[in-house]
Model the fold of this input.
Amino acid sequence: MWPIIQIETFKIFKRPRTYIAFGAIAALILVIQMGLKIDGESYAAFLMKDINNTLIVDGKVLNGYLICYILLQLLLVHVPLLVALIAADMISGEANLGTLRLLLTTPYSRTQWVLAKFIAASFYTILLLIWLAFLALFLSMWIFGTDDLFLMKSNYVVLIEGQDVFWRYVGAFVFASFSLLTVTALGFLMSSLANNSIGPIVATISAIVFFTILSTLNIPLFSAIKPYLFTTHMNNWKEFFDIKVTESNEAITGSILNVAKIKNSIIVLVVHIILFVSASVWIVRKKDILS
Amino acid sequence: MSVIKVHELSKNFGSLQAVNALSFEVQAGEVFGFLGQNGSGKSTTIRMLLSLIYPSSGSIELFDMPLQANRNKIAERVGAIIERPDLYPYLTAKEHLQLFAKLSKQKISKEQIEKTLVQVGLSSRSADKVNTFSLGMKQRLGIAIALVHNPDLIILDEPTNGLDPQGIADIRHLIQDLAKQEGKTVLVSSHLLSEIEQVASQILIIHQGKKVAMGPTQTLLDPNKAIIHIVTQHDEQALSILGISKYAQNIMQRKDGIYLSIATSEIPVLHQFIVAANIPLMSFELKRSLEDYFLQITSMQ
Done:
């Protein structure tokens, strides 16, 4: 199966569309970084204005770690849309182009083709995430330096020592890879159902928006299904930045407040990935190639 | 040796019967012409031969192996183009051949790729992206993809679509060379009898998913042969009588009656034979030649 994974990856990176996502992420991050570099102090002052009377924060609040957190909060909501551009086009795009029938006359089974395409799309997703990590974390660290990470949550603040932050980002990016692979798998499923490029992309984005709304609505009717929706769990990378504290309210270095929640979210996301990909394989195996 | 054996093959799309109980065999080394108008079921049949479409009923054997159970093994020995030459616009001609050579599970040298490009007349454009190609050039590249892994069976669905007269002649010579010089088996479909008759040693004519005539090209196009259309009150009885007669060949029952081919000199004898068998004959009509018959049933030129 290795040759077809190589070929699928080669095809992804031969298409101009692939680079739109990389370009869009770079443009967004660089613009935000530039803005914060020029006018970051007033932004930090704005963030701190409510707590300046009750808390004195030493050091550099607006450092690379905080910039990365801000960027991830902004971008990890939108990156799925960029992932959908490629993933939701993997099968239907070939059907639309008419090349799917060429591929399916080669000595590889349909299951092998679907899995190879999913692996190639996943590779693209991971690469996009690495690109995001490089720009959002490493570039921010280089431009803004590092210090303790000071986060303001809805009703509490978190202060994480500088030396205790980097591994949390590694964890957050690994977690985000599961979230984005779930989107890849969803896009893939939509792609297996259609013979045109646009429909599955729009359907994937719509599904993400729809389930995100269900996940955020606090209506009792939806409470029973919310724990099983992938959108409920996609943003739980933030759990890496909630730490345990001692009875005297001192942060415990290297701790995560709710490890079980992260584990549970990963399990839910992995189950979704398996379900979506299995359904794609089943659909492609069954269907007549008429395109 | 039969390279293709199709038995009672049918395909339904909902209430539409695209292919209806089609049976035929293609022998090794022959050029088999698959003729029928657009929408007659040719492409559906070809897609079933390539396992792109699953049959509703019937069986397909390629290289004496059931297709369904040996699909990947069989695919290594088959090269095909299916209808339009759909390719990747962002890849060059050479990249296409390299890609499909890699997919063939065979070791294909750079020389073989170059040779294939020369064979279809694309060597001078090998480094150009496909989005700069004309339809004819795409068609040539499609044929090159079908040939690059040196397959034993080549299936060409309407290979001359979009080609200019010179291109059509080139493809015709290529098909003849593949069979005569390289011993390949070629199944070539077209909606033009004139195209098929020049290359094929056997012809199968299909209409509305059903076989309407099949046999050696020379026999089917023999001016001394004719097609007879018979309408009786008891077709089943007529079919059994005709089945034992030594005159009639390629007997087929259709909605509008029975069709058969016969030597023109034996037409009166056949007529007497039917009358003598007491079959209530409503109509006994001579269709002069296969071409007339083909044109009539397919309403085409």
Notes: The mean pLDDT of chain A is 89. Strands of chain A lie at 149-152, 157-160. Chain A has one domain: 2-286.
